[in-house]
Amino acid sequence: MRVLSWNINGLRAIDRKAGFRRWIERAGGDVVAVQEVRARPEQLPRRLIRPKGWHVHLTWAERRGYSGVGIYTRRPPDLVETALGDDRFDREGRVQIAHFGRLSLANAYFPNGNGTDRDNSRVPFKLDFYQALFAKLEALRGRGQRVLVMGDFNTAHRDIDLARPRQNLGTSGFLPEERAELERWLGAGWIDTFRHFEAGPGHYTWWSQRAGVRERNIGWRLDYVLACPAAMPYVDAGFILAHVRGSDHCPVGVDLRPDVCEPG
Fold first, then answer.
1. How far is it, in rounded angstroms, from Cα 189 to Cα 196?
2. What percent of the chain is modeled with pLDDT above 90?
3. pLDDT tens track for 161-202
4. How much is the average pLDDT of 120-149?
5. What are the helix and strand counts (H, E) for the chain?
6. 118 or 6: which carries more pLDDT confidence?
7. What's the confidence (pLDDT) of residue 237?
8. Cα(132)–Cα(85) distance, integer angstroms
9. Within 10 Å of residue 52's Cβ, how many Cβ atoms?
10. Helix (H) or strand (E) holding 47
11. Which residue among the candidates 152, 161, 192, 223 is catalytic per the annotation?
12. Which residues contact residue 142 at a Cβ distance below 8 angstroms, ignoring those fewer than 6 apart?
């Protein structure tokens, strides 16, 4: 069972640039979670909202052209939740939790800490979102679910997770309080699936769109799939698809044992 996650930076844009509908067929995913959809169903062509062979759930923000998440699945989920119970977050369309038996997949677009003047003024909002989602997922863990949370976390965890750590110590995405919050998740038992399989440097998921930056691999690792301890035994691989273009982010994913959804 292959699970993929990608901040597409606009569903209409990624389909125009990279042929998103064709890509999900070639990528071999059983679940494809996307962030930053930036569109509502009525703005999208049929091939993106009702593609043959896929079940599609979209969650959008009240503000048009902003945020939004979506999940494409080969088998229908038992349930898709789209709210954390806090209107500050829910009106921005940032979360979906799809349940497949014992497996719960959370697709999340974590806020950026930058304000309108790139002044880090949204960092408290970002950290509140982290904490609200953490509480929701911990409750699922407590009920015995095998939980994965994937998406654009908008935080690089350690120096190894961005090309220029010293130059970005005051930048949202690498602030001490943001990194400490992600570390809190890992301290609670969540496993960074990519780092479980790959300890080396130079692996990133986001690059500035300035000319030559991606070619020189001056990037940040902002996109993750985290697994709770009950889910991790079912994870066979964690990977980054850095060669996939069309967005300023690239896809990430995991391969799961097919019995991850089953009781036992």
1. 13
2. 98
3. 999 999 999 999 999 999 999 999 999 999 999 999 999 999
4. 97
5. 7, 14
6. 6
7. 98
8. 9
9. 7
10. helix 46-49
11. 152
12. none
> Is residue 152 among the annotated active site residues?
yes
On the 0-12 / 13-18 / 19+ scale of CB atoms within 10 A, 64 is: exposed
The answer to whether the predicted template modeling score (pTM) of the entire model surpasses 0.90 is: yes
pLDDT at 115 (0 to 100): 84
Q: 146-183: buried (b, 16+ CB within 10 Å) or exposed (e) per residue?
A: bbbbbbbbbbbbeeebbbeeeebeebbbbbeebbebbe
Angle at 117 between CA 160 and CA 205, to 5 degrees: 25
Which amino acid type is present at position 182? L
187 is written with which tokens?
């301290």
Q: Please name the residues in contact with 100: beta carbons below 8 A apart, sequence gap of 6 or more.
A: 73, 75, 77, 78, 261
Which pLDDT band holds residue 116 (cuts at 50, 70, 90)? confident
Beta carbons of 82 and 58 less than 8 angstroms apart: no
